[in-house]
């Protein structure tokens, strides 16, 4: 239960930062809505939390969430994580987050293509 609460807290913090700073960035509102409509809806909320917890924390991901991530696609995964990592409060560690993003993708590809 504590792990779930931590993951939910991480999600809300990341989403709060993302929502608070959307107007200050070059990503236009229509582009952000398009990302949401085409990418985020492809995965369950639990897996979205897990993905965020892996990239922006130290969590692990289940095989089933790896399959969802793989189905979402690399472009969506890369774009959404980059979009979050570009927040002013996170940008200092952007390189680390993007490496974790790529590591997670490679892990999930290996899980999904061997199943």
TrEMBL record:
Superkingdom of this protein's organism: Eukaryota
Keywords, sorted A to Z: Signal
Pfam families in UniProt: Prolamin_like (PF05617)
Name of this protein: Prolamin-like domain-containing protein
Signal peptide boundaries: 1-20
Domain Prolamin-like: 38-109
InterPro entries cross-referenced by the UniProt entry: Prolamin-like
Tagged with keyword Iron: no
């Amino acid at each position: 239960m504590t792990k779930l609460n931590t993951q939910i807290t991480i999600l809300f913090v990341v989403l709060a930062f993302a929502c608070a700073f959307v107007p200050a960035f070059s990503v236009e509102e229509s582009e952000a809505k398009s990302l949401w409509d085409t990418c985020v809806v492809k995965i369950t909320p639990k897996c979205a939390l897990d993905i965020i917890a892996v990239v922006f924390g130290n969590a692990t991901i289940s095989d089933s969430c790896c399959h969802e991530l793989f189905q979402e696609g690399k472009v969506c995964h890369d774009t959404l994580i980059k979009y979050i990592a570009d927040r002013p409060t996170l940008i200092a560690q952007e390189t680390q987050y993007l490496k974790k993003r790529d590591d997670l993708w490679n892990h999930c590809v290996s899980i999904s293509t061997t199943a």
